[in-house]
Every structure is written in C-alpha cells, then in structure tokens.
C-alpha cells in the first residue's frame, strides 16, 4: 500500500476511535438539589432565628452598613430582607429576589405592613437573579441547596456586583437532597463560577451550619 494511503487509513481509524469514545462518554452528572419550599413562608420567621444564625455578625462581615446596596437571593419570606433594610437605612437599597411569584407577593405585602420603602422585589430566573443594579453585598440564606445550576447563576450574578462586593452563603452540611450542601462542594462550585473564598465561619459551633464569604476574582 502506498505511503499516502497508509497515512489516510490511519487518520480514518483514529477519527473512528474518537467518535466512539465521544459517543460513549457519559453526560456530566448534576449535583442533587432539594425541592423548593412550598409551605407557609412565615415558617422562616420563627422566634430567635436571627440570634441563632447571628445575622448581625453576618451583616458586619459582609460590610452591610447604612447606605449600602444588598441583594437577598432566594428571599423567601423576606426574613433577611427586612433585617438588611433596617440596617442600610433610607439611603441604602435591598433587592429581595426570588424565583417564586408567591414569595414576591408575600414580601410585597410584608413591606407595606412594615412600612419599608428601601426594598425592591425582583422576580428572578433559576439561573439568573436579574438584579437591576450593582450591589455591595449578597446573601444566600439556606438557599444554595435548591439551586440546580449554581455555577451558571453565580457567573450571571457577577455582572451585578459592585467593585469589592462580598457574596455570603449560609448553608448546612448535607448531600443536596436534605436541604443542605457540603461546604467543600460550595467552595468548589463557587471557584468554578469565578469566585475566591475570602472567609469562612461557624458561628453556631454545631458542625452543621456554616457561613462562607466570597469575592469575584
């Protein structure tokens, strides 16, 4: 067989092998997630929750002070939204984001009842919070385990971060299906999304709940 035909046959053979390998390669597995909460949203406002989660220390760590802009991603009942709104004052803004229209309605009614005028509700998408303006701080409070595509979501979030913004995640250790995600999994996924770990805390000292702080790289 002439040399040029041997080379052509070898190239065809390699191409076939590559095609077989590609066809047999398994699709990437998605991390398990928990079903979004569908119960009574007032469940999240049980007495003593702010103290147990040490929300004041969390806000201090995230630099949430008067005049700042804050995003509460997966705001639910507006538990953290209200606390942040009182902290930033009239010159600050809080964006209460959720993908559940019922949560948005619930928060809207709550804001009227509590006469808070520095909060804007945002109906986001599962892979994009759709924040309308840059923010100085972001918190996801026991929400991360419900996010099916966290890397995509946090890549999209980067467009809404002001310079030096901090992103906080309060979560509990779990396997994704039990309303928790392991700390190392969150750190890995955030790194893939373009964030660096700045700080980690265990305010409750219970070995379950943890608080991570990230910054965009």
3D structure, described in words:
There is one protein chain. This protein has helices spanning 3-24, 49-52, 55-62, 79-88, 101-114, 150-157, 183-192, and strands at residues 69-73, 93-98, 119-123, 135-141, 161-172, 195-201, 209-216. It has seven helices and seven strands. It is α/β, with parallel strands linked by helices and 217 residues long. The N and C termini lie far apart (57 Å). The protein has a seven-stranded mixed sheet, sandwiched between helices.
Regions with little confidence, pLDDT below 50 for 5+ residues? 7-29
Biggest sheet descriptor: 7 strands, mixed
- How far the N terminus sits from the C terminus, by CA atoms, comes to 57 Å
Q: How large is the count of helical segments?
A: 7
* Structural class by sheet pairing and helices: alpha/beta
Mind telling me the C-alpha Rg?
22 Å
Helical content (DSSP H or I, runs of 4+): 25-40%
Gross geometry: globular
Question: Key features?
Answer:
single chain, 217 residues, alpha/beta, seven-stranded mixed β-sheet, 7 helices, 7 strands, globular
Chain-wise SSE layout:
Elements: H1 3-24, H2 49-52, H3 55-62, E1 69-73, H4 79-88, E2 93-98, H5 101-114, E3 119-123, E4 135-141, H6 150-157, E5 161-172, H7 183-192, E6 195-201, E7 209-216
Parallel strand pairs: 1-2, 1-4, 2-3, 4-5
Antiparallel strand pairs: 5-7, 6-7
Short description:
The protein is α/β, with parallel strands linked by helices and 217 residues long. The protein is 35% helix and 23% strand.
